[in-house]
């Protein structure tokens, strides 16, 4: 299972209206049109090799030699591993008992004058939940008081109706991509956006990676032409699947969840004592249903499920098989 994808149907190259023109101009042209779509100035957005590339760029550029990092928990493991290579990491817990929101006071205690960067995902992965906006902005203000940057991964934000954190504070950087929402997995259409001065530092550092990819930028220009249609397709699939899962949760004894605010995935909380690793293996081997055990996301006793890659009937069948296995 490829966790780099969301389950949205991958874009097929032959469905794209690829632009003609000078290949040297593709990357700046894509950045310019991307900035227009994001509602920011061109100097406030930088085209990167996916959101992962943008995250790594920010970490390498903005973390200090003696600095510390604060990384939320649970989190997608590659983001944690990237941070751990650059300095001491402190973990900001998002607890199930608090609907997977972080505790603002705990967050303040972790961010000190030694902190370089704070990493969050909004919506949170693997739960699909959003933190209260006032808590995130208060954390950004506290980070600014200590000279730190708040880096927010918004790769799943396209499913949400809430505003992006881009531009909300001078020390907030947002990293995102068109992979999860629009299915442009293979094109690596990521970006990082924020205050022009911060983005200028990142742009200078980005030169060490080499030239931005002209072929990917050309794909990006074609993808932007379909962005509205593809976004609505993804949002409708997410809404329909969440409703199916929510009804199943209400009807299944011992299982609970916090219904996701956005995105096409969520986190099922299993009955006490159920081994999520063993359950996921049995569900796959005996019933042909694939889920991700929460242990792999630092959340033992849960399952991360996604519903964007299947229709409602197949989703219902998969959930029924899970219910039978739990009953056994």
Structural class: alpha/beta
Number of strands: 11
Total helices: the number is 10
Second CATH tier, the architecture of the largest domain? 3-Layer(aba) Sandwich
The averaged pLDDT comes out at 93
**Low-pLDDT runs:** none
Strand neighbour order, sheet with most strands: 1-8-7-6-5-2-3-4
Describe this structure in words.
The chain has 328 residues and is an alpha/beta fold. The chain has two domains: 18-227, Aspartate Aminotransferase, domain 2 (3-Layer(aba) Sandwich); 229-327, Aspartate Aminotransferase, domain 1 (Alpha-Beta Complex), CATH 3.90.1150.10. Helices cover 41% and strands 17% of the residues. It is built from ten helices and eleven strands. The strands form two sheets. It has an eight-stranded mixed sheet with strand order 1-8-7-6-5-2-3-4, sandwiched between helices. Strands 9-11-10 form a three-stranded antiparallel sheet. It is globular and about 60 Å long. It starts with 25 loop residues before the first helix and ends with a helix.
What's the topology here?
Elements: H1 26-38, E1 45-49, H2 50-62, E2 68-73, H3 77-84, E3 89-95, E4 101-102, H4 104-110, E5 115-121, H5 133-145, E6 149-153, E7 172-177, H6 179-182, E8 189-194, H7 196-206, H8 214-251, E9 265-269, H9 276-287, E10 292-293, E11 302-306, H10 312-327
Parallel strand pairs: 2-3, 2-5, 5-6, 6-7
Antiparallel strand pairs: 1-8, 3-4, 7-8, 9-11, 10-11
